[in-house]
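Posting this for the archive.
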Amino acid sequence: MTKDNLSAIFVIVDGIVQGVGFRSFAVKTANKFSIAGFVQNLKDGTVKILAQGSKNDINEFLNEIKNAPRPIDVEKISAKEIRIMLGLKRFEIVTGTMASEMMEGFDTLASIIGEWGKD
């Protein structure tokens, strides 16, 4: 893809998006649409995403993110277009401390187990 075909956005996702597997879902979805960038938890409970790809792929990516499966609950997405960042090759999770990542893993597992009886 040439630079002329690329678009880049900075996104803040609000809702129940930490401790529920959202970052892994974002990576899977980004890979589906050939999006490069990253996803990262923020201390205020939101998640930051930088996504770069074709405009159509980015729109499809955002649409799937908005409609993420339970236990994820996306309440609000704020996106703004940013300058293209050369050198992005893949989409990845930016991790926090080992302790915070372990807690998120436990929280994610607990959320998934809690959802099993709700269907």
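The CA atoms of residues 84 and 110 lie 38 Å apart. The domain at 3-84+93-116 is CATH 3.30.70.100 (Alpha-Beta Plaits).
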